[in-house]
Amino acid sequence: xxxxxxxxxxxxxxxxxxxxxxxxxxxxxxxxxxxxxxxxxxxxxxxxxxxxxxxxxxxxxxxxxxxxxxxxx
Length: 73
Fold this sequence. Notes:
With 73 residues, the chain is mainly alpha-helical. Helices cover 52% and strands 0% of the residues. It has helices at residues 20-26, 31-42, 49-67.
């Protein structure tokens, strides 16, 4: 069995046409970008608003680390 055919703990990614990890790898996303994709894809089926807050946090980190921008909104 291929690693991409299984999911440890839950099944929130199995219904997706492409796994977030595959998308991130094929598109050479960095850590923050990959986590944004992951949390956006799973928020409805796993942690709801908590996952969206994580998306926002990773976007703020991306702004700070890639663009040296004040992340205060």
